[in-house]
Amino acid sequence: MADIQLFVCSHKSTTVPEHVLLKPLQVGAALAGEHFQGFLHDDEGENISARNRTYCELTGQYWAWKNIQADWYGFFHYRRYLYPDTDTRLPYIIRREPRPDRMGYDRFAELIEQYDMILPIGEEMYVSVREHYAQAHCAKDLSLTEELLGQLYPEMAQAQERYLSGGRCLFGNIFIMKREVFRDYCQWLFQLLDAFDCAVDCRRPRVDGYLAERMLGVYAAYRKRDLRTLELPRIHFCERREYVTQRAINAILPPGTKIRARIKRAFGKKVGDTKCVIRT
Question: What is the pTM of this model?
Fold first, then answer.
């Protein structure tokens, strides 16, 4: 039987349903006042747990890469999972609470073993991935990362341009990968982020995590032709009041629609480029 470990990353103590596939993982444990009971912790063994403020859930990915032996590795958030529904093309759906017995997880392992890489369905934003990043974060960060990727991996230039010029974003640093793919991805990603960290002032929170979301799409665009790949919807879990609100919003403005993207842009807030400080 294949060893499939789906890590549910969390920076706060929360309930992760008991299931053979799901492994609760505390990220940023080195910065926390306590270790959560019943969780794995990303500050044990070889780790970068102390970088969690900029790397976010990536500190959990790094820890699993360096310390865990498995056949497939998956990464979810405590409120965002992949949903094994191969019929829907919605990028995500809303639910009240994680219930693996109602989510098709009892047969999820059979589906996972058929693929080398499972990704979230890309959400159409009706602007390029590059422009969407500039609207939400710091454009110079992504521009610098593109430049560094061109220097380190020139063979990926076409895939990078194809993904970043397209409009479908892979959000959340959520995925499942076979061991060989996962190790290759981590080697590639953390080398790229190390180069970025050396070139820019990284005191802004979450910057490496935000960049990794876009780089996952670049990596997938480059490797898809060689790998058995599947896209699944994300499933978001909300507390009662938020659940009612989000269900209503999604009913009126379905995820991935043009009207939803326009409204989000109209009410969004751009982070100014003045906060990006490139080292010389």
Answer: 0.92
